[in-house]
Amino acid sequence: MIKSPEKLADTTIQFSAPVRANSPELQQLFDFIALGASDRDRDRILPFDVVELIRRSRLGALRIPVAEGGGGSTARELFEVVIRLGDADPNVAHIVRNHFSVTERILRSERTQRNRRWLKAVADGAIIGLASTELEAKRSGGRQVVNTKLTPDGNGYRLNGRKYYSTGSLYADLIFVRVLAPDGSTAYILIPTNHEGLELVDDWDGFGQRLTGTGTTTFTNVRVEADEVIFETDTDKDDLPYNIVPQLFLTAINAGIIRSILRDATALIRNRPRTFYHAVSEQATEDPILQQTVGQIAANAFAAEAIVLAAADGLDRLPAAQAQGEEAETAVALATSLSAAKAKLIVDDLALRSATLLFEVGGASTTKKSSNFDRHWRNARTLSSHNPNHFKARAIGDYEINGTPLPQRGFF
What we know:
Elements: H1 24-35, H2 37-43, H3 48-57, H4 75-88, H5 90-95, H6 97-107, H7 113-123, E1 128-131, E2 149-153, E3 156-163, E4 174-180, E5 186-192, E6 198-201, E7 216-225, E8 229-231, H8 245-270, H9 288-324, H10 326-362, H11 374-384, H12 389-402
Parallel strand pairs: 1-4
Antiparallel strand pairs: 2-3, 3-7, 4-5, 5-8, 6-7
């Protein structure tokens, strides 16, 4: 059952336009999101109200320069915010993952009229979703397009096809779609989600990240204007060989989940009315075993955040490298992709271990459905399953041993 909450009408948060990484309103927003996160996850309440609040805050413009109407944040600041949002609600953080990935690609591209138009829409609050994956492709994540095709129609095109795992698109204003151009080459389009013939279906049934709108998108004779198509030969497309933001984004959300686990573990012990008869202390708060367990979760949270932000620093070095030429830019991009891959291996493990330690703190009573503490493991496990770690570890090892560059396509 899907419920439509009315909580948005009750909030009194007023936003500057737009919020920045250090805006006081940003913490108010995250506190509001966190307040209902567990209930939403347990009862499958889709967070349309929260996404609308994010629109109003213009959080999606965080990386757009101030001169262009955005928050002007660095990449490190962006990922600090992602960790905080993942702490508040990993579902909501995942909803905006593709938004920030696509926005980053536009920011790295030439400022043509259409790119300025798209950035202006984001600065005004628009949220971008993604439709890329096709189950008919034999290898996932490799940008292969099989059935989503453009056909000429006057001075524009018509689009027909089907995409899966369209995370965030259910809530989005614009959708970024990988398509086949009429000549058989790969192209991208960025179109409004309210186009006639575009259908977003909420059919994601994973045990974690239940509210992300990671469903099916179908296109039935959808009109696409000529300037909404980005061809491989266009000079205003992003040509960076490594697409680092999407994967590091998921790792940052897992770092945020560890923060949330720490908060729940601390609250459990402080509010625990009894303990085991053979425990060292009669008061849970004074029990050294419980203190040690929480201390380990706290250390995991610190390490995960530090690792994510260290990888994010590489993204902030890209503009200077770009000014030095293609070779320097590619070298920094490779190093940053390598850091992001290593970060995933470690942070995913820390998140899953921390989610298990939470049950060591509370015992059997913490497994009650009403508590919904299992959401931490379910969500972390689902996030970790994106681009499985054994493939990441193999690629890292091949690079270290043989100097083989990391895969450059998809969300590696």
